[in-house]
Amino acid sequence: MAGSPNSNLRGFNHAVQTLLKQPSQFLPHLTIPTFTHLPEDLGPHLVGAAGKGPAGTPQLTSPEKPRTPRIPKICALVLDKDNTLCPPKTTTFPPQILTKLAELRNSPTSPFYHATNPHSILIVSNRAGSHPNFDGEVRELEDQLAHLRIPVFRLPADTEKKPFCGDEVVQWFRERKVIQSPNEIAVVGDRLGTDVLMAGMMGSWSVWCKEGVFEPGEEGKPERNILEKMEVWIEKYLREKRGFTAPAPKGWEE
C-alpha cells in the first residue's frame, strides 16, 4: 500500500490499453441504475452473457443449434464504496442503500444470507482499505455495518488497487470457503475502468451501477465528472454502434 494514497495511474493506463485491444472487456454483464436495483438472485440476470465469445458473438455447439447457456451461481458479492454505496469520499450510506444491504443479509432466500453465508459480501474500495490514510473510513464503515457483518477489504502490502487486486479478493473468499470458482463472484460498482475490468481479470461477473449512488433526478445528485461521462459514452458506443457484448468470464464455457 505504499505510495500516494490517491494515485492509480497504472489503472488508468490499463483501462486505455484494454479499450484499444479488447474493448468488449469494458462492458458489464448487467447494468442497473443503482445498487438498490440489484436482483437478489443474480444468476438468471447474467445468463445473457454466458453464451458469448470475446467479441460478443454467439458460441455454437453445432452449425445448427446454439448452446443453451448455464445459469451462474453467485455466492459472493464484491461491492465498490464510492458512488456505489456512499457518495464519493464519504462514509454516509443513504437510507435506501442500507435497506438494500439489510435485505440481502437478512432474507433467508438470499444467497448472501448472514446465517448460511456469513462471509459472502465484501467492500473493495480504491479509497477505504487501500492506504493507512483511510483507516478511519474503514472503522466508520465497519461500525455502521457491524450488524450486517459486512467488512472492508484491506489491501495487502505491495498489492495494487483495483483493477489489479482481483487475485487477492478471490483468495479472501476462498480462504473463507465462500466460493470454489471466481465465476461465483459478482463485482458491483459504478466504474467500468476499475470495477468491470477487475471482474474480467478475476474471471467473475460484473454489474454496473450506471447512475452511481443516486437515482436519476434525485435531489443532491452531482453531475458526472469527465471520466464518468467518457465511460458512459464508451459503453453506449461499444454496445450500440459496434455491437459488442460482455464476454463470459474466462473458463466459464469449459
Automatic annotation (TrEMBL):
SUPFAM superfamilies: HAD-like. Residues 43-67 are annotated as: Disordered. It comes from the Eukaryota. GO terms for molecular function: phosphatidylglycerophosphatase activity. This is HAD-superfamily phosphatase subfamily IIIA. It comes from Penicillium canariense. The lineage of its organism: Eukaryota, Fungi, Dikarya, Ascomycota, Pezizomycotina.
